[in-house]
Write a structure and sequence with these properties.
Blueprint: H1 14-32, E1 35-38, E2 42-48, E3 51-57, E4 60-63, E5 69-75, E6 79-88, E7 94-105, H2 110-116, H3 121-138, H4 143-148, H5 150-166, E8 170-181, H6 184-234, H7 237-254, H8 277-297
Antiparallel strand pairs: 1-4, 2-3, 2-5, 6-7, 7-8
Helix pairs in contact: 3-5
């Protein structure tokens, strides 16, 4: 049985290859952990062995000490937070309000926010602040005013949230009051009040319409009276005489040249056509007969 004697002139290369491979792997890991990328819409906070740096890193590639430093990304884009709060109005009506708040982290103060509050600031700071401010503002208005002055309520809520969240480097950009919900009894009373208001407005409009129509009639009567007065002022004796002349002229234009036989009045017209020789003779004989009659009667 033959035995192989190891060759003593050359060393085994396997350990060296393994060593170089491990070293290369370590170098790659170190290099990989020596860089960090801050994404768009974020800032970075450098953390060294548990301690945060006040320096804020902007978007892009940044160096760090491997296994010693880490870079925490902080979102500084606008974030939306929705909440529902139950509160009592000034007239003690329970109001359920749905609100949406848009806010963002102040890039310059991201270090303070993470150092004092931490990454869960939305649940620890924002949500409680919305509830507290909304209840505080709601208590200043009656239930009807909350509906009628929604814009004013929204402005006060935004001012209160801006002041409260500003202490934690959070900037409120906008708020929206989505809805106000009240008890059924209050909704019924509001509806009844609106109906009564509409009826009263309709009655008022009818009254105004009647008043306007009455004024129009008075104005029309006054105008007609004024017109008659002006017409009377225009009537003069000369105008009357002129009108009479015009009437007579029109009558003459229509006359056919024949005079009427008998007309009313104190002085009758005589029919000239009836005067003829025969009529004259008959008239003379009648006169003679009448003259003889008294003579005959005078004899004894």
């Amino acid at each position: 049985m033959s035995t192989e004697v190891p060759y003593k002139g050359k060393k085994n290369p396997a350990p060296r290859i393994i060593g170089w491979t491990a070293l290369a792997l370590v170098i790659v890991i170190v290099l990989f952990n020596s860089f960090a990328v801050v994404e768009y819409g974020h800032v970075g906070i450098r953390k060294t062995l548990g301690k945060m740096s006040s320096e804020t890193l902007k978007e892009g590639l940044h160096l760090k000490v491997p296994f010693v430093q880490t870079i925490i990304p902080v979102n500084v884009q606008v974030t939306k937070s929705e909440a529902e709060a139950a509160a009592a109005s000034r007239d003690l009506q329970i109001t359920h309000t749905n609100i949406a708040v848009n806010y963002r982290v102040d890039a310059a103060g991201a270090y303070k926010l993470y150092n004092n509050v931490g990454p869960d600031y939305a649940s620890r700071i924002v949500a409680p602040a919305i509830q507290e401010v909304l209840k505080s503002v709601t208590s200043k208005f009656t239930a009807e005013e909350l509906i009628q002055k929604r814009d004013t309520v929204a402005v006060e809520v935004k001012e209160g949230l801006s002041k409260r969240l500003g202490n934690y480097q959070l900037i409120v950009t906008d708020i929206s009051i989505v809805n106000f919900e009240f008890a059924d009894a209050f909704n019924a009373s509001i509806e009844a009040k609106q109906i009564a208001s509409q009826k009263a407005m309709q009655a008022e409009n009818d009254l105004k319409r009647i008043e306007i129509e009455a004024k129009q009639k008075i104005a029309q009567a006054q105008a007609e009276a004024e017109s008659l007065r002006l017409k009377k002022q225009e009537v003069t004796p000369e105008l009357i005489q002129l009108k009479q002349i015009e009437v007579q002229e029109k009558a003459l234009e229509k006359w056919d040249g024949k005079l009427p036989t008998v007309t009313g009045g104190a002085t009758p017209f005589i029919d000239l056509d009836s005067i003829s020789p025969q009529a004259s003779s008959s008239t003379s004989s009648s006169s003679a007969d009448s003259a003889k009659a008294p003579a005959a009667s005078s004899k004894p």
